[in-house]
Amino acid sequence: MITQLQITHVRNLAQISLTLADCNVFVGRNGSGKTSLLEAVFLLSRGKTFRHHEPKRYISHHQKSCTVWAMTGSDMLAVQKNLDERQLATTVLKLNGQTVTTQSPLTYALPVLPIDPSGMTVLEEGSHARRQMLDWLTFHVKQEFYGEWLAYQRLLKQRNLLLKSPRVRERAGEVRAWDNQLAYHADKLHQCRQAVFERWQVCFDEMMGRLLPHYQGDIYLSYQAGFDDKTGLLSILASRLGSDMELGYTRVGAHRADVMVMLKQSGDGGHIKSQAVDVLSRGEKKLLITALRLSQLQVMCAYQQIQPVVLVDDIDAELDVGAMNVLLGTLLSLPCQLMITSLQDETAEMVAQKLSALHESRTFKKFHVKQGDITPDECST
């Protein structure tokens, strides 16, 4: 949980310093800076914003750097993005005053989950976004996962470099030399992912019963390892070495894993399986995405000691009243910190009332956002 937050030069947020509560609602017009605030928190945890990867896109105009700093119950975190004369970026990361060289310590110390019902990327684009969802969850639930992931990525990079090299067929023995370790770490990644996926599937089915009850049991998650785990990656790599040499990269492996959202329908001769995104309406897709995110959060809260921060942008813009009540009821029942934005004061009042009814001890704050300035509401506690 973030107790203190400072933001400098992120979009239209020039200089912001906030003391946060368990549940925080930020109210303001479009373009006031509400989403920029959530982007800054995401940047601190993930090293990028959920809108852009390039710092020049979110550092304030006419500025050469931006900084986000936060104090949690146990850690102090900071990220600074700097631009040089050519608009190239460098990054400085700090955890408890010490410079760190990778983003992962900050990601682990400050788990942040955005819930955006309108974000169709995970459903409509390739496997990368869906694999990221599973890997983010596995990273926080399985401590050994990140080390295995790093080892696999290093080995995969070396193998692919060899596959791209001139006269690669004369170096087939060198390629095979990487395969044992690559297959070993792929199997470890698969075991971690499979264990977390099984927990996620249970929570997802429960959440579908609350958000899309008429699809419960028919819409389900399907995990694919990226290779046939019964055959084993080592055998597959050996059998496909020739085609990998022709292509110049490794076609199968843990880097090709995917989580598909499938729909089972009755048809002539039995059940027909298809991707849910191809069948559902836009409104149903929003609820499906919400179910995916909320079920992720349920798994994480059950197996992670660190309290996650949940970002919900424009909570009343994408969901109807019934779905919003399910969303709020679930979020407020879990041990997480909430940062919610809205256009309406009434939404903040509703959140405060629901929180008070569920948890008298949890704190609430309402903030007003106007032209990049964020001030606490004097009446909120």
UniProtKB/TrEMBL annotation:
Listed Pfam families: SMC_N
Q: Where does ATP bind?
A: 28-35
Keywords carried by this UniProt record: ATP-binding, Cytoplasm, DNA damage, DNA repair, DNA replication, DNA-binding, Nucleotide-binding, SOS response
Q: Which InterPro entries match?
A: DNA-binding_RecF, P-loop_NTPase, RecF/RecN/SMC_N, RecF_2
Q: Which GO terms describe its molecular function?
A: ATP binding; single-stranded DNA binding
Instruction: Say which domain of life the source belongs to.
Output: Bacteria
Q: Among the entry's GO cellular component annotations, what is one?
A: cytoplasm
GO terms, biological process: DNA replication; DNA synthesis involved in DNA repair; double-strand break repair; SOS response
Cytoplasm among the record's keywords? yes
Which residue range or ranges hold the RecF/RecN/SMC N-terminal domain?
1-356
The UniProt record lists the keyword DNA damage: yes
Subcellular localization, as worded in the UniProt entry: Cytoplasm
Protein family according to the UniProt entry? Belongs to the RecF family.
Q: Which HAMAP family match?
A: RecF
Query: What is this protein's function?
Result: The RecF protein is involved in DNA metabolism; it is required for DNA replication and normal SOS inducibility. RecF binds preferentially to single-stranded, linear DNA. It also seems to bind ATP.
Q: Which NCBIfam families match?
A: recf
Q: What is this protein called?
A: DNA replication and repair protein RecF
Q: What organism is this sequence from?
A: Moraxella caprae
